[in-house]
Amino acid sequence: MKKINLYTGLLMAILFSACQKEFLNRVPLTQPTEENFWQNKTDAEFALAGCYNFLSRGANAVSTTATAPGWGGGYMLWETLSDNAYTTSGTGNFAIASFGSFDPLTTGIILDAYTVGYQAIASCNIYLANIGRVPGLTIQERNRYIADVRFLRAYQYFMLSELYGGLPLITKPLGNNDESKRISRVSKTIIVDTILADLEYAINNLPNTAYSGRVTRGTALAYKAKVLMSNGKFTEAAVAAKTVIDEKMFSLNASYNSLFLKPGQNNNAEIMFSARYLPPAFYSPQDWLLSYVNFVQPLKYLVNDYECTDGLPISSSPLYNAAKPYENRDIRLASTVIVPGNLRGVSPGTEFDPARDNVPSGFLPRKGVDPNRFPTTYATISDQDWVLMRYAEVLLTYAECQNEVSGPDANVYDAVNKIRKRVNMPDLPVGLTQTAMREKIRHERRVELALEGQRYFDLKRWGNIKSVITAVIDPNNKARTFPDRNLLWPIPQSEIDKAKALGNTGLTQNPGYF
């Protein structure tokens, strides 16, 4: 746990120094104080921008050390912790994390995920403690602001709980008192109950509208379903996901490609939540990160999992030709991965050559990379948002949970087949058993959400992460490891040491770490 001055002074600065796009497009205040802030609705929106801004941390980066890998335009690096992708970079220590050799002293993402998560939560807590001071707000306006921030706090706690398990539960600003200094960890169950309570408030107080930068009722329902599914509560998760489906505020976008680039992301009925950017003042490092320094490289394990257009895997489809392995494949492959010979840009001469381009995996991301900006540099300004939740995931969540509850009924088939129809893939075969349907849904989730940062968490949830990861041989010929302790990440030792210095012995370490 951070020292008290970090939770108060520094986090107040973080809270008010950020800005967000569109409805929160404001010039940030530089030195707000308790006395001169929380005076009007504009102040409330400045502060709300600070809470949202944690989603896009690392914007306007000019070097790999400033990208804040793991957030916003650097979110795809989470894929390198799975069998979907590989990284040659030490930035953020994702390479160390992917190999499974981290410990409580490891910095980068192992440390940052914890500290940034709590910085974001502290900002939310400060907001919730002060929004009542703003004069002139209607009850509905105040409740909407509170709902936004309680959703964002739930989002941060969910990410933390998936990585670290039980956590210190902090729901109000910390002060310079013994109670604040000695907050202990509580069980993951208690954390999840708090997350669900925040989401329930958001569901009941957010507008039931399309998403345009601020979360809506549908966003909160989708995350409620995701949290419940991740904690094995399939019946309740299916109900929450079905509510989103039945309320019809979101739908599949006709074009799969346009979900990940501007202007296709604007007013897109499938996008439910995203880390947003507004160049030139607030831009993403996404194109140069993925297309210049090539930090994320898809692996053959992912590429080989895309079916042929007849719906059969490459191991059994008569359409598969080993001499032309990327023809007659699910079109999501071409929308997600740049394979050898593909154009990286929009003109001849930009064909991808893994040897020339020094890409040992043999593949590069297409999803979320704008070919109109190739060749990219550190100066490239990207405007695409990073999509954190979309309607296709809700359909997959519903299908997975409903299948676990009642087997492959018509609703399960319908949810999956809608996604497949969008990309002209044939319907799933009829008569599947529950086990066979489970594997089909897991396949569909992998290829539909590929390179979106989901795979690592899915493998953990399904309980097969160790067997999958230990079968991966990286392009450097190193076999990955996955010690049992890695099911939970270590609480950073620096946080434990700071807690002990304050007399707090309740911030304990996860099993298996020193």
In short:
By secondary structure, the chain is mainly alpha-helical.
Element layout with pairings:
Blueprint: H1 4-16, H2 41-53, E1 85-86, H3 94-99, H4 109-130, H5 139-164, E2 167-168, H6 178-181, E3 185-186, H7 188-205, H8 217-230, H9 234-247, E4 271-275, H10 286-291, E5 297-298, H11 300-303, H12 331-336, E6 337-338, E7 364-365, E8 386-390, H13 391-406, H14 410-422, H15 434-448, H16 455-462, H17 465-469, H18 493-501
Antiparallel strand pairs: 1-5, 2-3, 4-8, 6-7
The helix-and-strand class reads: mainly alpha
Oligomeric organization of the protein chains: single chain
Tell me roughly what share of residues is in helical segments: 40-55%
Which geometry do the CA atoms define? globular
The averaged pLDDT comes out at 93
Q: Helical segment tally? A: 18
**From N to C, what is the helix and strand string?**
HHEHHHEHEHHHEHEHHEEEHHHHHH
- State the end-to-end distance: 18 Å
Our estimate of the beta-strand percent is under 5%
Low-pLDDT residue intervals, each spanning 5 or more residues: 1-29
Q: Which strands sit side by side, in order, in the main sheet?
A: 1-5
Number-wise, the strands total: 8
In this structure, how is the largest beta sheet organized? Answer: 2 strands, antiparallel
Radius of gyration, taken over Cα atoms and rounded to an integer in Å: 23 Å
